[in-house]
Amino acid sequence: MFGNEYGMKHQARAALLFGLLSVGCMLDAAAAKRAFEMNIEDTRITLVEKQQFHTFAFAGQVPGPLFYVDEGDDIEVKVNNLTALPHTIHWHGMLQRGSWQMDGVPDVTQEAIKPGDSFTYAFKADPSGTHWYHCHVNVNEHVALRGMWGPFIVKPKKPTPLEQKVTQDHILMLSDWDSKWANKPGFGGLPGDKFDYFTINGRAFPDTEPLRVKKGDVVRLRLIGAGDLVHSVHLHGHAFKIAFKDGFPLANPITADTVLIGPGERYDLIFEADNPGRWMIHDHVDSHTMNGDRPHGGLMAVLEYDEVKRNDSWYPWNKRTPKPNFYYQDSLKKGPGVYTNEAFKGQAIQ
Ligand code: CU
After folding, report:
1. 94 C-alpha to center of ligand 1: Å?
2. Are residues 194 and 121 part of one domain?
């Protein structure tokens, strides 16, 4: 996804920085310097069908670009605020040892980035695991209603034996929206708000893409609680291992078929695809499987096996062309880098 000007600028910048800092790198041969630049832009996205939302989107997409880096890398991100409101970025999960000024909390670690201004974050990727980033200004609105979040995955130096078996890696960011604020940027996120749309990676069922696997795959689902509500995520037809909590490996993974995930939490589920079929993965809080006032939507997706034909006339996905990389599964196969995603791009709002 780096064939565009945005990406080429980053690569050139990264190469330049790498050149300038090669002496520093020699001191720590394993740590790469990774420098990126990212805009915050007013962007209209579509949650499902006709339900649109005004967002302040990282690189014009919701979720934001995937940061996939190696543990111990030196990360530098220049953030340009092209919107009319102040923002910051908090790198949720990063411990910021010796770099607390990079923690992205307005009035505590920095002055918020004003409209038209830029700020450069620099920190070490530590610890490894499934993390995320989000704005920390007026979070009730900017995170809960304006899509200011994206995945930040740190590849471990020493992967666990279980995660080394993974053949299909997916990211699922869970969110909640209140449609009455959809077209009122700068407002919303108040007590009494009633969430009426629920999404995985910014889309509600039936517009969530199927997760496609084949028999024998070892599948990892990286759940990230990016919204404001608690979700009870249930997978049909399989028992999974809850293998990581907030990026940290569990000494004794828990075998389960349902996991409760709250705001800010991450759980990595790993299971063997050993039961060909078409299976639901969904929130068991039934009121979260609605689109507005209509049931059978919201926080649901289908796990599809390649071995099972999609030709049933009543199956919503029988004629639709899948958008690749909806769960960043293709990007994660490519290895460390920063990946924008066409599947999540919205329309620019002037
Ligand atoms: Cu913000």
Report:
1. 19
2. no
Is residue 5 predicted with pLDDT exceeding 60?
A: no
What spacing in Å lies between the alpha carbon of 138 and ligand 1's midpoint?
6
The rounded Å distance from CA 113 to ligand 1 centre is: 9
Task: Give, in degrees to the nearest 5, the angle at Cα 264 between 77 and 238.
Answer: 115
Ligand 1 center to 185 CA (angstroms): 11
Domain boundary among 125, 159, 193: 159
Task: Tell how far the Cα of 135 is from the centroid of ligand 1, in angstroms.
Answer: 5
Please give the distance, rounded to the nearest whole angstrom, from the Cα atom of residue 192 to the centre of ligand 1: 21
To the question of pTM greater than 0.70 for the whole model, the response is yes
Neighbours of 338 (CB within 10 A): 27
Domain closes at, from 111, 135, 159? 159
Q: Write out the residue range of the structural domain in which residue 17 sits.
A: 4-159
Give the range among 15-19, 149-153, 267-271, 315-319 with minimum mean pLDDT.
15-19
Query: What's the CA-to-centroid distance between 91 and ligand 1, angstroms?
Result: 13
Instruction: Give me the residue label for tokens 């340009």.
Output: 80
Domain count, the chain: 2
Q: Take residue 289 and report the two structure tokens written for it.
A: 């499987």
- What backbone torsions phi and psi does residue 234 show, to the nearest 5 degrees? -120, 130
